[in-house]
Design goal:
By secondary structure, the chain is an all-alpha fold. It is built from nine helices and no strands. The chain has a domain of about 150 residues. It comes from Arenimonas terrae.
Length: about 270
Amino acid sequence: MNSVLRMSMFALLVTGTGCATMYPVAPRWTAAEIIKKAEPDPFIGADAVEARKLVQGTRQLLSDAAHDRRIADIAASEVTFYGTLLGVLGLSLDKAGLKNTGGGAATLGTLFAGRYKLGDQEVVFRKAEARAACLELALAEMSVSGTEVGFRGQAMFEAASTLVATDTTKASALHVQAQVATAEVPRLVAESLRRLTNDLRIALAAIPLTAMTRDQMLETLQAATEAEEEAEAEAAAAYGNGASSKEAAQHLGALTATLTVKEKFDACFVQYPQ
């Protein structure tokens, strides 16, 4: 009778208004509910420079999370080790209390590490960190000074008088494309960081991700390679041998990186799978 009563109470809880969202139906929200929950998206930067800082910060937070789990795993293994040692000492000395204390500690350390799968968690966070580092590198390649990201004007494309266009029409077209790409960086970063964190959540929930096929992987990586080669060729056509100095070469490199940042971001998710 008690089991029937418990099942009835559970059924009432499940079908109650507070738990209705457990059914596989899309939730319906009112405008007031949405506004009440509204918070600024932490992944949206005001410009390319701020977006780069968001990537850097995310990468560091992922690194810290992985490090914390590594330390916790070591601590749990230490508890297991010393607990086992105490148990062995208790056995050799025929001390029941010491043996029981050591055995209990060893069991606790093993259960803690096993329950939370700290080693597996560390691997998951390290993979996400590698993705973030790849995104950060793609943004760094867009910079000449180390602080600016992408291009916003003619002066940022030309290193004083060392970079002279041999085809001004093509050079101007590349400038416009790069400025558009730079303006898109905040959106691109926000989308990529959301994808990164969503994949991280799924991995931590032990839900297997839908793997890309081999052909899809090759296609994505090939697109990044072709985009970079095309951008380099267009830059060479626009400037010819104008990149005669190291500074000018850096500007051309940043230009091609800006033109291909989207493809490089896509490639990061293939090169560093979660």
